[in-house]
Write a structure and sequence with these properties.
The protein is an alpha/beta fold and about 230 residues long. It is about 30% helix and about 25% strand. The protein is built from 6 helices and 11 strands. It has a 7-stranded mixed sheet, sandwiched between helices. Strand 4, helix 2 and strand 5 (about 65-70) form a beta-alpha-beta unit. It is globular and about 55 Å long.
């Protein structure tokens, strides 16, 4: 079985300058995802995609194969799925294809090879039930009363609160989950068909929340967790 992992890491970053190369415990951020991919017992090929030569060289130094993406796929408004499809196109030119593709975002350094392998095993089992893809997620309880905070801090109800159901009406309650950004897997052909890294009928591999780095405070939190993890190793 051939499983390709794609780690997308562009050079630009609005929130934190050169985020993908920022060190955590003397190792650049992208190194953690590369090492987890290489240590996975299921992943057979690890590709780092970037438009940035320094990021590509750093990825190569840590053992990843590299593909340079076009500049237009590294702009702020660029989506991740076209980046993955570009990798597939480049590999197909070399005569390569895989059974599965997994997206490993470099902003999840706490996701290790054990997480990846368990997520794959869960996905393989869920395929027997007809699920065509899988993503990592965490749960924040059961509810029917969900709201969205908009960019201007106004609230938007995602249910009809004027017809608020009683809490006792159990069928009105459902488990709320959120993508954690750590793992997205699907078949090679499914990715090409849906042109996205989540299929038509995805399964969710639910665990405790994993930090997806977005701020300087996130870097500090991850460092603290990794220090404790190393002390207990």
């Amino acid at each position: 079985m051939e499983i390709l992992s794609i780690i997308p890491a562009r050079g630009g970053s609005k929130g934190i300058k050169r985020k993908n190369l920022k060190p955590i415990l003397n190792k650049p951020l992208i190194a953690y995802s590369i090492e987890a991919s290489l240590k996975s017992k299921y992943i057979t090929k690890t590709i780092l995609s970037s438009e940035d030569d320094e990021i590509l060289q750093t990825g190569k130094n840590y053992g990843a194969e590299i593909i340079k993406r076009p500049y237009e796929l590294a702009l702020d408004e660029a989506k991740t799925a076209p980046v993955m499809l570009h990798v597939l196109e480049e590999l197909e030119k070399e005569g390569y294809s895989a059974d599965y593709v997994v997206l490993l975002q470099p902003t999840c350094p706490l996701r290790d090879e054990n997480y990846i392998d368990k997520a794959f095993e869960y996905y393989f089992e869920k395929q027997k039930e007809g699920f065509d893809s899988c993503f990592g997620a965490y749960s924040f309880g059961y509810t029917h009363a969900k709201w969205k905070i908009l960019h201007n801090n106004k609230l938007e109800a995602l249910y009809d609160f004027r017809l608020r159901p009683r809490r006792q009406e159990e069928e009105q309650h459902y488990k709320m989950i959120c993508e954690n950004g750590a793992f997205y897997a699907l078949k090679w052909d499914t990715l090409k068909e849906v042109k996205d890294f989540i299929g038509y009928n995805p399964a969710a591999y639910i665990t405790q929340r994993i930090i997806d780095i977005d701020t300087v405070d996130d870097f500090k939190k991850v460092e603290e967790i990794l220090i404790k993890r190393n002390e207990n190793a």
